[in-house]
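For reproducibility, we list the full input for the zinc ion complex.
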Amino acid sequence: MCTGSGGTGTGAQSGPPEIMKIFKETGALRQGHFVLTSGKHSAQYMQCAQVLQYPWLAAQLGQALARRFAGVEVEAVVGPALGGILVAHEVGRALGVRALFAERQEGEMTLRRGFALQPGEKVLVVEDVITTGGSVQEVLAMVKALGAEPVGVGVLVDRSGGRVDFGGLPLHSLLSMPIAAFPPEECPLCAQGLPWEKPGSRGKA
Ligand SMILES: [Zn+2]
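The corresponding predicted structure, in tokenized form, follows.
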């Protein structure tokens, strides 16, 4: 089982084949030669919105992620906007509990729109992709500040390489796929002379 915390940091991918297949077939996970927004080069590109645009697949992923928390008592699911909204919705549906989202207001992660958590309410925090886990940390801090109790973190894709720690809370992911990115001058794909693509922008180099 992929737990998200067992990453080796070598760039190895792990996850159930059927989940990997969904990500590849929808174009959420692409192989090639990409220039990332950071300016670094990578052989992979991940865009979860590509898979979540199919509600029936989003539901399937939500069920799979919910199953990772079998035996854990969850009373509400919370995800950071925007990436965590649909994930929270589908995991909440699978667990039969409320799904809320947190959003930044003047830089601070907060519950708006009348959303509330009860003191002691057991909360599962979810997100589409984590790299440093920064947004998830902010949501966890918010949940605690509201007096509720975080019971775990669930993500579709863990790109952290096992480097994040959410205060000892159980972390489960559907796919564990550490980022293998290189400065352009060290890029093995550039060294092979392969043409690159900048996802989200038009045209190829
Ligand atoms: Zn390159």
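Strands lie at 29-35, 41-46, 76-80, 98-105, 108-111, 122-130, 149-158, 171-176, 181-182. The longest helix spans residues 55-67. Both points were considered when choosing residues for closer inspection.
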